[in-house]
Write a structure and sequence with these properties.
Elements: E1 8-13, H1 19-31, E2 35-40, H2 42-50, H3 59-66, E3 74-77, E4 95-101, H4 103-110, H5 117-127, E5 131-136, H6 143-154, E6 158-159, H7 173-187
Parallel strand pairs: 1-2, 1-4, 2-3, 4-5, 5-6
Helix pairs in contact: 1-7, 4-6
C-alpha cells in the first residue's frame, strides 16, 4: 500500500551558489512524506559540478543518488517539460520554494517572463495566490535586486534570504544549511528538528 502523502510541493534549484540548501530541502520533504516536483536549471547543474563536485553526466542517476529516501514521491521535470502538471493552475500544488534563487530567475518571475518550467510554475503560484517562497543567495544586492524582491513581496511572496543564524551555536557546515532549510520548512508548516529554536535548551 502506498505511503500516506501529506501534501505536494514544487522545489526549484537555480544557479545561485548554495545548491546544498535545495538538496537538503527536497530530502526533508521526502522524509516527511510530501510529494515533491523538482526542477533544476542548467546553471544549477553547473553548480552541482563546481561546488559539490558531483558527476552530472548522468542526471537521472544523480537524482536517484541524491534523493533516495521515498524516491517514489519525487517527480523530476526538465526545464522544457511544459506538459508537467505543475505548469497548470488546475493542478493541486500546495506551494513552491526556489532555493537557492538567482537574481536572474527572481527578475524573470517578478516580470512574469515564464521562460522555462520553473518560471512558469512560479507564475502559476502567483496567479493562483498559492504559497511561493524565494531564497535569494547573492551579495551585495543592487537596487534592481531589491526592487524585484519588493515587487514580489507586495504580491505575497515570502523572501527568505539564505542568512543562517548563529545563536544555535553551529558546529559545522551542515548546521548552517539546516538552519536556513528549517526556516523554509517553518514557513511551509512542515515539522522538523533541524535546529535548536531560540529559548529551547541546547
Amino acid at each position: 500500500m502506498d505511503q500516506f502523502i501529506k501534501g505536494t510541493y514544487t522545489v526549484g534549484i537555480t544557479g545561485a551558489s548554495g545548491a546544498q540548501y535545495g538538496i537538503k530541502l527536497v530530502n526533508q520533504l521526502l522524509l516527511e512524506s510530501y510529494q515533491v516536483h523538482l526542477v533544476i536549471t542548467e546553471a544549477a547543474w553547473q553548480v552541482f559540478d563546481l561546488e559539490l563536485q558531483l558527476d552530472v553526466g548522468n542526471r537521472e542517476r544523480l537524482i536517484d543518488d541524491l534523493f533516495n529516501k521515498n524516491r517514489h514521491l519525487l517527480c523530476y521535470h526538465s526545464l522544457r517539460d511544459y506538459s508537467a502538471p505543475i505548469a497548470s493552475g488546475s493542478y493541486k500544488n500546495d506551494g513552491m520554494v526556489i532555493i537557492p534563487c538567482s537574481m536572474g530567475t527572481l527578475s524573470s518571475i517578478a516580470h512574469a517572463s515564464s521562460n522555462n518550467l520553473l518560471e512558469r510554475t512560479a507564475d502559476v503560484m502567483l496567479k493562483e495566490k498559492r504559497k511561493l517562497i524565494i531564497v535569494p543567495r547573492e551579495t551585495p544586492l543592487n537596487e534592481l535586486h531589491l526592487e524585484n524582491m519588493l515587487r514580489l513581496a507586495k504580491m505575497g511572496v515570502t523572501i527568505l534570504p539564505a542568512m543562517p543564524g548563529f545563536y544555535q551555536q553551529p558546529k559545522n557546515l551542515e548546521d548552517l544549511i539546516n538552519f536556513v532549510v528549517g526556516k523554509v520548512l517553518d514557513n511551509l508548516d512542515v515539522d522538523h528538528s533541524l535546529f535548536t529554536r531560540w529559548g529551547e535548551q541546547q
